[in-house]
Amino acid sequence: MTENAPGAPGASYAAAGVDIEAGETAVELMKEWVAKAQRPESVGGLGGFAGLFDASALTRYRRPLLASATDGVGTKLAVAQRLDVHDTIGRDLVAMVVDDLVVCGAEPLFLTDYICVGKVRPERVSAIVKGIAEGCVLAGCALVGGETAEHPGLLGPDEYDVAGAGTGVVEADELLGAERVRPGDAVLALASSGLHSNGYSLVRHVLLERAGWALERRVPEFGSTLGEELLIPTRIYALDCLALIRAAEVHAFAHVTGGGLAANLARVVPEGLHARVDRRTWTPGPVFGLVGEVGRVERGELERTLNMGVGMLAVVPPEAVPAALALLAERGVPAWRAGEIVPAGEGLPGGAASLHGEHPA
Question: Where is the PurM-like C-terminal domain (predicted)?
């Protein structure tokens, strides 16, 4: 047995790097923001072992299906940590979760978060939660609970990671997806706010590592600094998509995340049909062209990695296009008809999507 040296202090959690008091302070600071992200079905508040949600609200459904999704923010966190700006990352987290839920037509109900830090800095944790709460408000869902864990030795003092899990509900006979898609359907593109939360490993490699650009560098094409452009929060489409379902017939949505536009759209295209998207219908924002130009990234690689200016796609019958576009314009979401669903064959594989044409200069 190895004994402590004479006079050496006894071991403690604090000496091992975990500050319980700092964690308690963080909880106090975040209470204000969590209180703003509630729904009528929310039960209780912070401090319990589990978040509570009144499931009696589901009794109004004939056959409710619960939908669940979980995600993180990825290496966009590295940009936030380098800039010491932490109040937007939470909105990215919410967007990545709730916009996956709404794809099947589900209304997001509640979300829980997990924040893992190297060292609890209460104000920083509170800023992260502030962004998560703001995102939940924008998505119409409740933030019912979460966990903040301190992992000294695993993460550096200024490093952290975030993840979230959400639950939504959809009527069984109103479930959206490939089963509803028909030949002749139109593909509507909903504009992204920027890079969203995918492809940052490529973006950071090209602009920060290879080109050596500073995050504080002002980029004329952006009208802002590089860091400000890279931290633009992901657009949250959940309430817009739900409003679209109420206003017009919708057959499917596709959330454009990792893999790019074509790969995500293909997930809602049935065998025997093909989705053709016309690049001539939009011009990607400057950041996409800049990454391609500075990094000499081939177009195919860009389109497999980045959203290229489109964050969500809606597949609707052609007669629903005017009402759908009018509704989205009214809600402040730039959208346009970008393609159509056609029979597979003659070089167009079934259950797939492809991009054609050239973006306008």
Answer: 182-345
Query: What whole-number distance in Å separates Cα of residue 335 and Cα of residue 361?
Result: 19
Q: Under a CB-based contact definition with an 8 Å cutoff, are residues 75 and 207 in contact?
A: no
Q: What is the mean pLDDT of residues 261-275?
A: 97
Residue from 121, 110, 209 nearest 167 by CA: 110
Residue 268 has phi, psi (to 5 degrees) of: -120, 20
Instruction: Check if the beta carbon of residue 164 is closer than 8 Å to that of residue 70.
Output: yes
Q: pTM of this prediction?
A: 0.91
CA distance 232 to 354: 28
SS3 244: helix
Find out whether 282 and 359 touch, Cβ atoms under 8 Å: yes
Nearest alpha-carbon partner for 316 in 240, 268, 251, 245:
251
User: What are the pLDDT digits (tens) for 177-226?
Assistant: 999 999 999 999 999 999 999 999 999 999 999 999 999 999 999 999 99
Please give the structure tokens belonging to residue 99: 């916009």
Burial class from Cβ neighbours inside 10 Å (0-12, 13-18, 19+) for residue 344 reads: middle
Answer yes or no: are the C-beta atoms of 155 and 194 closer than 8 Å: no
301's tokens: 């690689």
Q: In the chain, which ranges are E strands?
A: 42-43, 52-53, 64-72, 107-117, 142-150, 160-171, 186-191, 218-219, 224-225, 252-255, 273-278, 310-316, 335-343, 352-356
Give pLDDT tens digits for 133-178.
999 999 999 999 888 999 998 999 999 999 999 999 999 999 999 9
> Greater confidence, 191 or 39?
191
pLDDT for residue 12: 47
Radius of gyration over alpha carbons of the chain, in Å? 23
- Other C-beta atoms within 10 Å of 272: how many? 11
- Distance of alpha carbon 295 from alpha carbon 199, whole angstroms: 13
**pLDDT of res. 11:** 52
pLDDT at position 2 over 50 = no
